[in-house]
Amino acid sequence: MNSDVVLQLALQGFLMGGVYGLIALGLSLIFGVMKVINFAHGEMMVFAMFLSITLLLWGGLDPYLSLVIVAAVMFGVGYGIQRVFVNRILELPEAMQVLVLVGLGIIFENGTLMIWGGSDFSPKTSLALSSFRWGPVTVDVPRLIAFILAIVITLMVLLFLKKTNIGKSIRAAADNRYGALIIGAHINRIYGICFGIGAACVGAAGALLVPLMPAKATMGAPYTMVSFVIVILGGMGSLIGALIGGLIIGVAESLSTVFLPSSMKQVVSFTIMIVILLFKPQGLFGGKG
Amino acid sequence: MKRLYLFLGVIFLVLLALPGVLNNYWMEIFILIFFYAYLGQCWNILTGYTGNISLGHALYVGIGGYTATRLAMVFGLSPWVGMLVGGLFATGVGLVIGFLGFRFGLRGVYFVLITISFAEIGRLIALHLESLGSFMGLFIDFNPGFLNMQFRGNLPYYYISLGLLVFSLIVVRTLELSKTGRYLVAIREDEEAAESLGVNTFKYKMVAIGLSAFMTALGGAFDANRIFHLSPDRVMSMALSIEIILRPIIGGMGTVLGPVVGSFLITLPAEWTRAYLSEVGRPGLHMVIYGFVLIFAVFFFPRGIMPLLNRKLGRFFIKE
Amino acid sequence: MSLLRIDKIAKNFGGLRALDNVSFELRSGEILAVIGPNGAGKTTLFNILTGFIKPDTGAALFQNQSLLGLKPHRICQRGLVRTFQIVKPFLELSVLENVIVAAFNRLRNPKDAAQKAEEVITFVGLADKRRALANELNLPNRKRLELARALATDPTLLMLDEVMAGINPTETDNLIGLIREIHRGGKTILLIEHVMRGVMALSQRILVLNFGKKIAEGVPGEVVKNPLVVEAYLGEEYCVASR
To answer: pTM here?
Structure first.
């Protein structure tokens, strides 16, 4: 086995992992705070990808720039979804919550299908094909930029949560819903902002992925799945865990193509999730089990 | 209770006679209603009655279908027998999943994720196994005959699916009245309390998942011999798992009639919107509506429809 | 005949010593009360005896067979049942259905279980509420339900965890009467209790725990005068009762 190939794959996976981490960050926030499994996560990302593509095709805006707009729009969308739909289901039995989020996933996926149709979209972006050599490996520039921006955004979100008042309220609410209610926190607003940030994260991630791969309306489900895996691996509610978990899964999936056909790489992710669920359900960085 | 049984008996007779007035399209619809009600009822045994939510039940459908089909292809084994073999295989897989989930104390979200993981791994494996036809799947030769579980026209399939549904209703009702069933419900309500009152919660949860898996697989075998085609994306997908859970959840989990009521309520409008909107609107519109219907169904009936029916009609049908 | 023998049971939670070499014996047909301030280790003891927690060291013998390592349901099948301090009814089930579940501990046939359940429900005084859902009951009735369920398992030893907490004196007296009747029926009873009225009315012997240690054991008259006990409870209604 050529070690250069392995190194190349590991690098590709690592860079992709940064974006995975960002996607998972959104899910970790939503799950950590509201204990809701967002079955629409990947579908929301795909929707954001198409928003980014539209801005590119109509306004000539490069995804790396329109990222901000897309994230902002997705924030609004996420906030709205939380206030209108998710809020109502927080006290319902789990099966009901699943159904609603699945319903939202269906709406996002098919809404995307309705608006943009079912075929692949591969718009040319400025940096799409550029790459450079770095020692034994080739680095795809779009992938590198996606990685860097994803990490930057992740750190920004982490800072926001740590330093700002809203951020602290969110973390308080995550820790203890009733406690937060007692101290008078506007829990609905907090949840809304939280879901909004989660949506913004996948929105940004979607924009970052546009230069990297063709966009198809039905591609969301695997991303929902992989973000679950990452959140479990990193630890439910741990945001650093989401980032590190993303990197690990990115590398693992990429390296698995050495001995598995590429469409099977999810088997590795799911196996990791099963192992973690059985032996360390709180994940790498999770708190209480 | 007698009135309820009488009422259900009448409905059953009506359903028996219905093919006389239905055209092929409508028979197809009813087959779908019965079939999905059946699958939902099988799922109900695990989730409605013990409270452990499975979102990977399509795995058992696939196992049932692929096993029966491969046995028929390779050994000429009648699908009626192959169905049982598939059922046993599915039970084995279900018990493994149950063992891992229950022994390791996985509840709620964590249990859901494990069921999803196994189902997806199963699907991905099937997608790549040559013997299962990879992503193209298996195409079944049309050799009509009772032994092959293949028939011309929809009529026989109508009766078989109705039969399966009635069978599942009898199983669940019998379960409800038995010690096992009562133990399952106790586990759902408060597992610790049940354990302290002498219920071997692990054993009974395993029984529930094993039975649920077995019966689901039977449905898979039936479906394979009706559609004549099996592919991982049709019979082992997350989409199917979701379809399976819809009807019991909307109809009412943990009730005998819930999945049936849910199936009638969902399948008809779903078919109508698909038929009308696929032609008129853009692709995807009917599914968007489907999504909204799901959401609003949960908003208005957070416990499913059965509790409402029980309240309104309970006094008439179920005198105590 | 020694029904239950506890020998040097110890349990640590992290740095906290919950139980420290606790030993005692319970004879068949006795009513023994375990008392002590909050956090003394009483519920931990119950959890160990019913298989929910494993002790660090020590032995527990029920009818001369070890309880340790057994799952809770096996212990119940052997004849040792407990009620929970914070009652755990099967909320969506009716009173009757709740008790039927318990009755299946010894019975296999649904009809027999239903009949036994009816008897027990009548005994505890919930007959007119048989069809009510558990979540519709008030606290005193939920406590009766908890008791009914435990009885329906046909136990030899009944362990009651603060069954009198949170109810008014009249209801307490009703419960005392009920427990007396259960005892007269031949059951051995081990109760954790804070409500001294109940303890003094029912127990033949008292065991006192404090900070996980047994500090006194004996007949009620002696125990309440024991200076160690009084000190442990300083400030509670007890001191008044002992004068």
So the answer is: 0.90
